Known about the structure:
Number of strands: 17
Helix content: 25-40%
GO molecular function: beta-glucosidase activity
Bound molecules: beta-D-glucopyranose
Keywords: Glycosidase, Hydrolase, Signal
Pfam families: Glyco_hydro_3, Glyco_hydro_3_C
Catalytic activity: Hydrolysis of terminal, non-reducing beta-D-glucosyl residues with release of beta-D-glucose
Protein name: beta-glucosidase
Amino acid sequence: MNRMTLQEKIGQMVQIERTVASPQVMKNYFIGSVLSGGGSSPGVNASAQEWIKMVNQFQRDALSTRLGIPMIYGIDSVHGHSTVYNATIFPHNIGLGATRDPELVKRIGAATALEARATGIPYLFAPCVAVCRDPRWGRCYESYSEDPEVVSSMTEIVTGLQGDIPSTSPKGVPYVGGKTKVAACAKHYVGDGGTVNGINENNTILSRHGLLSIHMPGYSASIIKGVSTVMVSYSSWNGDKMHGNRDLITGFLKGTLRFRGFVITDWEGLDRMTSPRHANYSNSILRGINAGIDMIMVPMKYKEFIDDLNQLVTNHEIPMSRIDDAVRRVLRVKFTMGLFENPLADETLVNHLGSHEHRELAREAVRKSLVLLKNTNSMLPLPKKGSKILVAGAHADNLGYQCGGWTIQWQGQSGNNATVGMNTVDKQSSQVVYQENPDTKYLQSEGFSYAIVVVGELPYAETEGNNMNLTIPEPGPTMIKNVCRAVKCVVVVVSGRPVVIEPYLKWIDGLVAAWLPGTEGQGVADVLFGNYGFSGKLSRTWFRSVDQLPMNVGDEHYDPLFPFGFGLTTEPTDDSN
Length: 577
Ligand code: BGC
Ligand code: BGC
């Protein structure tokens, strides 16, 4: 660090988006980090080799600077390496929470790390350790649970992503176990899931005790496991923007919890400290960096950021000691993870992307994430033979819907072509008929033994997912009504959170919450047809009506449709039935 100029130090604090990065920019500004924003890829259906080519080029530019400090490339692999074509897409966190299986989640972390490394990427903006306290929040599915204990247990994913921290490692020091592991990021610090009415990026009104006991445990647990970075939340706590909260970033995170990795802003996090955005940018930079933020996800207007920060340091408004702390932390993570020794991609890893082994793991996760909510007359598991089965609903044949947001595109998408995988109810026998939206006449004439109706939410991410009514979009409800009144039926709900279901419950014989299962939806059929039993438990309270919200386990007035922890079980059946 003694050899670094102020320009070089500032460069280490800057993260820019790949679309504004170029050889000149990397070199002239000594850029320390590049990211892919949501859905930002080097091309449609880009291969692992194309990703590697892009990342390696940015790296060579960084290495060609005076000190040759490698840049670190980051991406949102929040349910597998989910921006990349042909990657294995795992269930979103809400489903993983329902497995109550930290060891499984650790294996998912290890698989995700390998798939990221297969594309030359060593840094992931995951895990999200948000404790979603209101399902109206557009990011509810990114949260493992409303219960801080379940969220903390799931931070086992950090050891999968980064490797097992040695027992001799001092508390708070980041750890990454080499070339097949990645640097992780616990986000969004802190209280992101506690905002008023679940409004994204809004205000969390809570006592200090409430904040520490509900929203902090996921960070303590991640830090003990050696998490390398922490991302700050857009949200406010009792009216103060987290991006300017020196007490919680420098005082609590770096002080009390002894976190020694780096703290990163969210995307345009400093711009969003003011309303309107970017209104007093230089002041926001001042507040954010003096609060203790080390790396800034600028990510587009890097020139303005660099000029402003330079001025603030030259004017002594930001002390050099603060800059040095930031740079020391960024370099510590880069050294720890072996980026100086191995800055370029290891091309021997490319075949891990979407490997058979990883897809089997995802299918196991899907099976374990399913929560059986109703099972009249033990309708489930379904018989495999001798029946004529109707499968209905757009969600039964749409990988995009089954994957949800943060899949290939930031907001996710519709259809079967953008990812590679298996739908929820692929043919189990020749007696399966698929009709997206069957009419009444058809239902009555065909003599079905039973129907499987797959309905749910359409993909969304972040603020676009805020939803104050939480109803299943049409034709879902109408189809439940029409099909389930005509034929014995199982309803499979594909959604990022509990949705309004009570009005239809009387018609439904079997009800399954499948969350957002990802590309290996066959895991749903595995359990419906009894190859495996149901074992998942609700990681969230299932409300009766939205006017009850927020309502969480432990609340004084707790009158859910299905309580936190609920989940019926079935035994696997043998193949002869
Ligand atoms: C980016 C995302 C980012 C979002 C923030 C999008 O344009 O692609 O990565 O999370 O903006 O609003
Ligand atoms: C999201 C983060 C994400 C970042 C980069 C932001 O909009 O809040 O979770 O890591 O974009 O894509």
